[in-house]
Write a structure and sequence with these properties.
By secondary structure, this protein is mainly beta. It has a single domain, classed as Jelly Rolls, CATH 2.60.120. 12% of the residues lie in helices and 35% in strands. Strands 1-2-3-10-5-8 form a six-stranded antiparallel sheet, with helices on one face. Helix 1 packs antiparallel against helix 2. The model has no long low-confidence stretch (mean pLDDT 93). Pfam families: Cupin_2 (PF07883). InterPro entries: Cupin_2, QDO-like, RmlC-like_jellyroll, RmlC_Cupin_sf. This is Cupin type-2 domain-containing protein.
C-alpha cells in the first residue's frame, strides 16, 4: 500500500508580504456623487485582482448599461440596497440586492447598477484583471469634479474594452 506524503519541507519560505488597507486608507476619488476607495490596485497581485469600495448616495444613477470584453466583476453589497439591471440580448431584469448579497458579472454580461432608494448604499467591487482600476481613475480625471456625462463615460469605456448597450 502506498503512503501519502505531505508537501516537501525543504522548500524555501516565500518572502511575499500581505497588504493591509486600514478603514480610512486607500486612494479615494469621486465619480460624480459616488465615492470610490481603491483597496487593491493590482500592484500586490501581479494585476490578477483589483478591488474597491463604492459609496452610492440615495437616488443616484449608475453607469449606462454596458458589458466588459476583458474582465469579470463581482459586487458585494455591504450597506443599504442596490438595483442591478441586465439588458441587451437577455430579457431585461432588475435585481434589488441587499446588504450581504453578492453579484457576479462575467465577461460579456450586459449590466448596470443604481441606487434608486432613500438610503446610502455601499458595495465592495472586485475586477480581474486589475487593470480596470485605471478605468475608474480615468473617469474621475475626465469628470474633473463634475458630473460623469454620457460622453465622458463613452470615452473612458472605449479605453477599457467596455461596450455600451445600444439603445433600443
Amino acid at each position: 500500500m502506498a503512503t501519502l506524503e505531505g508537501p516537501p519541507t525543504n522548500l524555501p519560505v516565500p518572502q511575499n508580504h500581505i497588504n493591509f488597507v486600514p478603514t480610512k486608507a486607500g486612494e479615494t476619488f469621486k465619480l460624480g456623487p459616488i465615492t470610490v476607495r481603491i483597496m487593491e490596485d493590482g500592484s500586490h497581485t501581479d494585476n490578477r485582482l483589483g478591488a474597491a469600495e463604492f459609496i452610492v448616495p440615495p437616488r443616484t444613477a449608475g453607469p449606462p448599461p454596458h458589458w466588459h470584453e476583458m474582465h469579470d466583476e463581482t459586487f458585494l453589497v455591504t450597506r443599504g440596497k442596490l438595483r442591478f439591471s441586465t439588458t441587451g440580448h437577455m430579457e431585461a431584469k432588475d435585481i434589488d440586492a441587499l446588504a450581504g448579497d453578492y453579484v457576479t458579472v462575467p465577461i460579456r454580461a450586459p449590466h448596470t447598477f443604481a441606487n434608486p432608494f432613500d438610503e446610502e448604499a455601499r458595495f465592495f467591487n472586485t475586477f480581474t484583471p486589475a487593470f480596470y482600476v485605471n478605468y475608474f481613475k480615468l473617469l474621475s480625471d475626465l469628470a474633473d469634479g463634475g458630473p460623469v456625462t454620457p460622453q465622458i463615460s463613452g470615452t473612458a469605456m472605449a479605453s477599457y474594452a467596455t461596450i455600451t448597450v445600444p439603445l433600443s
